[in-house]
Amino acid sequence: xxxxxxxxxxxxxxxxxxxxxxxxxxxxxxxxxxxxxxxxxxxxxxxxxxxxxxxxxxxxxxxxxxxxxxxxxxxxxxxxxxxxxxxxxxxxxxxxxxxxxxxxxxxxxxxxxxxxxxxxxxxxxxxxxxxxxxxxxxxxxxxxxxxxxxxxxxxxxxxxxxxxxxxxxxxxxxxxxxxxxxxxxxxxxxxxxxxxxxxxxxxxxxxxxxxxxxxxxxxxxxxxxxxxxxxxxxxxxxxxxxxxxxxxxxxxxxxxxxxxxxxxxxxxxxxxxxxxxxxxxxxxxxxxxxxxxxxxxxxxxxxxxxxxxxxxxxxxxxxxxxxxxxxxxxxx
Length: 332
Prior knowledge:
- By secondary structure, the protein is mainly alpha-helical.
- It folds into two domains: about 1-10 and about 20-140, Orthogonal Bundle (Farnesyl Diphosphate Synthase), CATH 1.10.600.10; about 145-325, Farnesyl Diphosphate Synthase (Orthogonal Bundle).
- The chain has helices at about 5, 20-25, 30-45, 50-55, 60-80, 85-105, 115-125, 130-145, 150-175, 180-200, 205-210, 215-220, 225-235, 240-260, 270-290, 305-330.
- Helix 5 runs antiparallel to helix 9.
- The radius of gyration is 20 Å and the shape is globular.
């Protein structure tokens, strides 16, 4: 870890939430703590399910996940904002990030909070640059690409937009020795499952952005075109073809979750409950879509809070037991 992260400087009382996690992670420099707190804010505001699941991790791991999520969300907003998209700013952000990362070796620093937190996270957990480059490349694709002809084309896009996020997370989650490769395969697949859950939930919003993230070959097989999707959005109705299309994508995404499920057992026991909670809650988006009778093009569905708590609270108790068991094992 860099000297910046270990500088012993008193921490001002500006933030309260997350301070214990920053202490546990050994991030003591006030400026860096503020950077990670900005990432935590982005995570809590825009990724409620991930944020809730992150709370099940040991405190020392949480700030690194805030940084990974905060960086991804910050970059994504340049192209996904419905009110003020700024693709040119994404290009500048990427260039400045890499300049800052290279300059840090010579004593420089990245220009913004999320980039500084991300740079330290990459250093601490040896996150390969290729994963971050792949993510940013997919974000740039959103500037020009409005659809994907085949499932294989969409998987290529999701490699950067989702699969590599799972790979960035994997070192923090600590796969068991000897299981790194199968854990990585499951992490990639789980990232795709999360992404497809978003795509299904957000079909209507993505239309407003000029994009469709369902394969054109699936639309064609169901006899659906973009005009029909727009009709369903504007009329709050559902045609038989669009219903069949959404059923197809829900079934495909459930299969991705099933393929990813064995990965939970390949992780450190102190990480398992966080990921299983995220799987269940994010998979619950598909249940919410079905509970809405697939009528999601004109509104955004979500997992109800009581359901979230029924999943998260028992998982929190299990996660705490796992941490106690690990401490007991280490001191035995």
